[in-house]
């Protein structure tokens, strides 16, 4: 009787319609994104080794740089004083940026392998997961930027101006953000975070070399000058230095100790920094964040390093 029942029930009725689903997933793209974002938020909240340690590390680095660069921002007597201020900005960008990029790589590596199982079960697609991984970094990096800027800016005694402080926070925020997204991107295109660290190291070296700090872009050979404009650190320095000194009319002595020029003229002559392009620099650093984040999402979608 059971065999006859199975045989009868295994044959659909003539009038029955075949099962069909309009979409592969039960939720919309935005619904999947919200679910993944909620999941990532809990994952980050339960990972103090990454989140809390990052804030603590930022505070320590801020105090260290603040004491080393004590009152650098208020000294404007000579050309070297401006270079010292630029060096303090450059060191913070490079030091904290590379730290963010390398620390996020193992986190993304673990989350990616968890997503393989959940995506195979049809819980969500690749892009909502990737964009949720990107979005969950926004508040953490913002708090990190506030901690650093709030401590270092006033210890270095840059101009006490709300407009300039906001610009400083803005450039530090998007600088740390594109470094973080770059670390996520390198992990997404490589089998594991160890290979990602190896891939990222040459880029950091090239960004360091062509940032405009060691060699001014006007002194870089013409056949390499294009890389200066494609260098995210160069635009961060452009924005940080121009927002602080691009409108300063005070005169500073040049290296010869005799002649003097206005600070804004020194920036334009020595580095090619012009106040008029401050807004462009602000847009470009956002563009780097978008490029790295989108590349991360596409790599998560098309690359699969699961070997089972």
UniProtKB/TrEMBL annotation:
Chief place of localization: membrane
Keyword Transmembrane in record: yes
Keyword Ribosomal protein on entry: no
Source organism superkingdom: Eukaryota
Localization per Swiss-Prot or TrEMBL: Membrane
A Pfam family annotated for this UniProt entry: ABC2_membrane
Bilayer-crossing regions: 55-73, 85-109, 129-155, 167-189, 195-215, 277-300
An annotated GO cellular component: plasma membrane
Stretches assigned to the ABC-2 type transporter transmembrane domain: 32-245
Record keywords: Membrane, Transmembrane, Transmembrane helix, Transport
A GO term for molecular function: ABC-type transporter activity
Membrane topology (UniProt): Multi-pass membrane protein
InterPro entries, per the entry: ABC2_TM
Listed name of the protein: ABC-2 type transporter transmembrane domain-containing protein
Native organism: Genlisea aurea
């Amino acid at each position: 009787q059971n065999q006859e029942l199975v045989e009868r029930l295994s044959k659909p009725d003539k009038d029955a319609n075949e099962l069909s689903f309009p979409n592969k997933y039960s939720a919309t793209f935005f619904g999947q994104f919200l679910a993944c974002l909620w999941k990532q938020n809990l994952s980050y909240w339960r990972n103090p080794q990454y989140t809390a340690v990052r804030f603590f590390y930022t505070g320590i680095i801020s105090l260290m740089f603040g004491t080393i660069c004590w009152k650098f921002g208020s000294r404007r007597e000579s050309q070297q004083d401006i270079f010292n201020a630029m060096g303090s900005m450059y060191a913070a960008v490079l030091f904290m940026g590379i730290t963010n990029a390398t620390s996020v790589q193992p986190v993304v590596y673990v989350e990616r392998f968890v997503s393989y199982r959940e995506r195979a079960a049809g819980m969500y697609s690749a892009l909502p997961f990737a964009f949720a991984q990107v979005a969950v970094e926004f508040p953490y990096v913002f708090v990190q930027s506030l901690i650093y800027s709030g401590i270092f800016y006033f210890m270095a005694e840059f101009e006490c101006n709300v407009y300039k402080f906001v610009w400083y926070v803005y450039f530090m925020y998007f600088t740390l953000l594109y470094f973080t997204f770059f670390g996520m991107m390198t992990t997404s295109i490589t089998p594991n975070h160890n290979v990602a660290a190896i891939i990222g190291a040459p880029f950091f070296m090239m960004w360091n070399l062509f940032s405009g700090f060691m060699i001014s872009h006007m002194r870089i050979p013409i056949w390499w000058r294009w890389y200066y404009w494609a260098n995210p650190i160069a635009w961060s320095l452009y924005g940080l230095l121009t927002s602080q000194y691009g409108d300063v009319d005070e005169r500073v002595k040049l290296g010869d100790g005799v002649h003097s020029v206005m600070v804004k003229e020194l920036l334009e002559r020595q580095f090619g920094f012009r106040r008029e392009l401050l807004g462009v620099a602000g847009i470009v650093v956002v563009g780097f964040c978008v490029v790295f984040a989108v590349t991360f999402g596409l790599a998560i979608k098309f690359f699969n390093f699961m070997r089972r």
